[in-house]
Specification:
There is one protein chain. With 191 residues, this protein is mainly alpha-helical. The protein has seven helices and two strands; from the N terminus they run αααααβααβ. A two-stranded antiparallel ribbon has the order 1-2. It is globular. The two termini are 26 Å apart.
Length: 191
């Protein structure tokens, strides 16, 4: 339910940003972040609350939320177009790789019902260290960009430095997945 809440908040955030209602958008973003933290806390501390569907929805909700935020913040001229293009391109390549790995690790006969069944886990992607850093940096940039018009620092050199650092960690993260490739994928046997 928490992941679905985050997915539902994504278009609301996008609308608020495009309408330049940054005060409310900042609060809704904080709520979305809280649902993510709570989701992770519950999954780590109550094993009975873990589910295959939840483990598939959580990263999907994160990708949807980040994509909507970056596109809408770019539309509002708070994040540069090339940076948003870089971030979304990296995510699209990762998603394509996950679809490929899913196909390759699915036992025959491969059917659509097996392929799209989140309860039928065949592989687990282990994020690289730089990818975890990149996720944190991307979220910091979103929060800083949302807060910029509220606290009147949209033209700050520090925000521009954060753009550059985000671009660097995004490129480094993409390279780490390319370089380490197979080491980041754990195939689950016996399914």
């Amino acid at each position: 339910m928490l992941s679905m809440t985050r997915i539902g908040l994504a278009p609301v955030l996008g609308y608020l940003i495009i309408e330049e209602d940054f005060n409310i958008a900042l609060g809704v973003f904080a709520l979305a972040g809280l649902t993510d933290l709570l989701d992770g806390f519950i999954a780590r501390n109550w094993a009975s609350q873990k589910s295959a569907l939840g483990s598939a929805l959580d990263p999907l909700a994160d990708k949807i939320l980040i994509s909507v935020l970056y596109v809408s913040l770019t539309y509002a001229d708070l994040i540069p177009v090339p940076l948003t293009y870089m971030i979304i391109s990296r995510d699209v390549m990762l998603i394509a790789a996950v679809f490929y790995v899913r196909y390759r690790t699915l036992p025959t006969p491969r059917t659509l019902s097996k392929y799209f069944n989140p309860c039928y886990a065949t592989a687990r992607l282990k994020p690289t260290f730089i990818s975890k850093v990149n996720t944190a940096v991307q979220l910091i940039l979103v929060a800083a960009s949302l807060a910029a018009p509220v606290f009147n620092y949209a033209d700050s050199i520090y925000l521009q430095i954060l753009w550059c650092f985000t671009a660097f960690t995004t490129a480094a993260s993409a390279y780490s997945y390319y370089h380490y490739g197979r080491k980041t994928v754990q195939v689950i046997k016996g399914k």
